[in-house]
Specification:
The chain is mostly helical and 383 residues long. It is built from 22 helices and no strands. The protein is elongated, with a radius of gyration of 25 Å. The N terminus and C terminus are likely disordered.
């Protein structure tokens, strides 16, 4: 294993060396021996660049060198060429490319520089998404896409008001449906970052950016309501993959509880076919699915202006629903929040007959009367 005794080259020298070695690798006339040597040199140089950015046990980060390195990266074509050929660079080099780009996109002082770079090189994100299904690069591709598309400036061009099946959200949904569990889970992570602006708990963006991101997504969901839900619902059949159902319920829940998606939520929870779909999933013999379906179901019940078609489903099944949730609530693994939500849900089920006979009273129901917490770990949130 190669031992690194400090950083030996300047930022400009590293970028120039990487470019030369990449030229050699991509040249069809290069012999296998030379190509192998260039692969090793490129891999080592890129690793040194990540040490310059992140540091290690022997090398401390130097802010001046970081700025110089990222400036060199910006003015060269190295990153574009690395990304556009990521599928031909083995296993290790794509991982290092991902680390460099993720640092650049996440660093508070220099993220704007990275955003500008991706704005100019618009082919990078579609290329990364299109190569997600390749085993050797799916993780690096996903990491960069997630890091890039939580920035509203980069997300907006990819979510036009009217989208076709080539839209990135539909493409990522297709990846979620992949049979390989690792691919599917990672694809869901991409989808969660794009739609819900979610990465890790430690990784956040400014409130202003998060707000703008959610506005862009809400507008897209409104404009593409039918196509989006038709696609999502294909993954929510009771006899389908339990992992897939759980992931899609989680997605639905987060979309509906986000107040930016208010009009999407109202339309969704007043559609009787959606309620029927969620009630079918409550009967799936899987505790995680039942709990996630309950989280979505309670939003239907919490609606103070239920459509008559919703009441017509809930009212004749009221006792069965209450009995089912009472049994579910006996699970010792469920926390106290479930009991609180169940108590409020039963209160709402208890007044359904009054809602049916007195629509004026239904319209006047206060938010306080329909208090069901959307976030099981937090306080009440308005819908």
């Amino acid at each position: 294993m190669r031992k690194v005794f400090g950083i030996k080259k300047s930022p400009a020298e590293y970028v120039a060396s990487c470019s030369r070695n990449l030229d050699t690798i991509l040249d069809a006339k290069t012999t296998e021996e030379k190509k192998t040597k260039s692969f090793n040199k490129l891999e080592n140089n890129l690793k040194d660049m990540t040490i310059m950015l992140y540091g290690d046990g022997e090398t401390q980060v130097n802010d001046t060198k970081i700025t110089k390195l990222l400036n060199e990266v910006k003015v060269s074509s190295l990153v574009t060429r690395l990304v556009m050929n990521i599928h031909d660079l083995g296993f290790e080099i794509p991982k290092t490319i991902s680390k460099i780009l993720c640092y650049w996109l996440h660093d508070e002082e220099r993220a704007n520089m990275a955003i500008d770079y991706f704005k100019v090189n618009t082919q990078l994100i579609p290329h990364l998404i299109s190569h997600f299904e390749r085993e050797e690069v799916y993780l690096p591709c996903s990491e960069v896409v997630k890091e890039a598309l939580i920035h509203p400036e980069l997300l907006k061009p990819f979510l036009p008001e009217k989208s076709d099946s080539d839209n990135i959200i539909f493409k990522v949904l297709n990846y979620v449906a992949m049979k390989d569990l690792a691919f599917s889970a990672e694809a869901y992570g991409m989808l969660d970052a794009i739609i819900n602006c979610k990465l890790s708990k430690e990784h956040t963006i400014s409130k202003d950016k998060e707000t703008e991101h959610k506005k862009i997504v809400a507008k897209w969901l409104n404009s593409n309501y039918d196509g989006f839900w038709k696609k999502v619902h294909t993954f929510m059949e009771p006899n389908g993959s339990h992992l897939m159902i759980e992931q899609m319920l989680k997605l639905v829940y987060h979309i509906l509880k986000n107040h930016r998606n208010y009009y999407v939520m109202i339309k969704y929870i007043n559609d009787a076919s959606n309620l029927t779909r969620i009630m079918r999933l409550l009967r799936v013999r899987n505790k995680k699915i039942q709990v996630m379906a309950f989280n979505v179901f309670k939003i239907f019940v919490a609606n103070p202006q239920k459509d008559q078609s919703i009441i017509d489903i809930l009212l004749p099944n009221r006792e069965k629903i209450a009995k089912f949730f009472k049994t579910l609530g006996e699970d010792e693994e469920l926390d106290g929040q479930f009991e609180d939500d169940l108590e409020v849900l039963n209160e709402q089920l208890g007044v359904l007959d009054k809602l049916k006979t007195d629509p004026k009273k239904r319209r006047r129901q206060s938010e306080q009367e329909t208090r069901i917490r959307y976030d099981r770990k937090g306080g009440n949130k308005r819908h």
